[in-house]
């Protein structure tokens, strides 16, 4: 497994952090041995289990590229009787909605190739949102792809439990933050849980 650099550049601007974190994440995933990615994603799902136990509904996401896949966690949640939702995005300026989805249901391509439930799937108000990220820090600040979908959705759901989902190498000493960025309650990686 590749060892990440000890720290990022001194430039804490969001665009610079995104570029470095994306490159770091993608290099990490490409360096994994065959089967190792699936094993690590299953390990992350095991760490998530206690955090979602008792939830009625959890919003996950369908991974793109080097993002950690939620597949094993979705399967575990569904097996435990927890309703699953996925984000649905129609356009950059439109709000992200969480729609009901179950393993085996059809996914359709949406904004920028995001695989999502069909637009007429029932809306869900989740108890817990599992958010993808490019990076996070010990203060549970998260940096995403930059479109702001999750920050807007989480701000509209103030009582939802917010859990970041990513690789342990995505943790950095500090993440650039703006006043509108919504902090997480915890982050789950293949190595364990930060916060909680």
From TrEMBL:
Keywords: ATP-binding, Ligase, Magnesium, Metal-binding, Nucleotide-binding
Pfam families: 5-FTHF_cyc-lig
Gene3D superfamilies listed in its UniProt record: NagB/RpiA/CoA transferase-like
InterPro entries tied to this protein: FTHF_cligase, FTHF_cligase-like_sf, NagB/RpiA_transferase-like
Necessary cofactors: Mg(2+)
BP term (GO), one: folic acid-containing compound biosynthetic process
Source species, domain of life: Bacteria
Reactions this protein catalyses: (6S)-5-formyl-5,6,7,8-tetrahydrofolate + ATP = (6R)-5,10-methenyltetrahydrofolate + ADP + phosphate
Keyword set includes Cell division: no
SUPFAM superfamilies: NagB/RpiA/CoA transferase-like
Gene Ontology MF: a single term: 5-formyltetrahydrofolate cyclo-ligase activity
Enzyme class: ligase
Record: residues binding ATP: 142-150
Protein family (similarity comment): Belongs to the 5-formyltetrahydrofolate cyclo-ligase family.
PANTHER family: 5-FORMYLTETRAHYDROFOLATE CYCLO-LIGASE (PTHR23407:SF1), ATPASE INHIBITOR/5-FORMYLTETRAHYDROFOLATE CYCLO-LIGASE (PTHR23407)
The protein's name: 5-formyltetrahydrofolate cyclo-ligase
Source organism of the structure: Rhizorhabdus dicambivorans
